[in-house]
Amino acid sequence: MSNNNDIRSAGLKVTHARKRILEVLETGNESHLSADDINRILIKNNDEVGVATVYRVLNQFVDAGICIKHNFDSGQAVFELTPDHHHDHMVCMKTGNVIEFEDEVIEKRQEELAKKNGYRIVDHSLVLFVEPIED
Amino acid sequence: MSNNNDIRSAGLKVTHARKRILEVLETGNESHLSADDINRILIKNNDEVGVATVYRVLNQFVDAGICIKHNFDSGQAVFELTPDHHHDHMVCMKTGNVIEFEDEVIEKRQEELAKKNGYRIVDHSLVLFVEPIED
DNA sequence: CTCAGTGCAAACTATTTGCAGATTT
DNA sequence: AAATCTGCAAATAGTTTGCACTGAG
pTM of the predicted model, to two decimals? Predict the structure, then answer.
């Protein structure tokens, strides 16, 4: 029931819709889901709550820090549970596969570059669009 | 008249709309413009061509490699002339200011990470969302 | 019981497309 | 003249919002 605590401690009521959406985020094999993906999964599970609610809840989750939102590229935003440690993404253009990675060197370098310009990093987004080497 | 050649060599006819849009991209003090920004500027210049045309032409320019499109963040995509050498972006959350930067170390690191995973980088996007240090 | 949450449908924003008339080559 | 291009308005995709009803605390 750790889920429910996450929801509760965000000052949100523990409702059916929120529990189910959080479950989908926790359970899926694919950890980067669009609002529509989530809606579709809920329908398949006979737990439909409507797109409006999915969007509303996801945004509340983002505000609460429960999940984060990525605007990788084309069209839809995707959401993932806030990871324990930060990571970046590689998106395969062939398969759509998303690979997570982290790299100390890049992270540190970014901080330095921001500071050099008089800024502090609030957030950042690094996405590599890649293709399998053999093509 | 190098503009016109850019357009022509992309296999596109050199039309009023295309010339004006290319001019705006070349001239503006702000080099990262949304379709709407461009439309607004064209209206101000009494060169309105309509949003549909702006979008269509921008997409053709992107396909032709004349400009590139960024999905920085919220809402609208922004376009800039294809730069001579690649660079990444820092977006100030306070002022909306866009700072360009480049860093060899990060670039090299990205290649290595992709290769390590069996991929080749087709493209990448690195955006730092920053705030001025004093707040 | 009260206030937050839901779900529908309608609204909105960014972008694309069909089509008839205008332009470029 | 032929083929491409334009610009309007209508269509589409993704997301948000108003509102009357429902459900959590």
Answer: 0.84
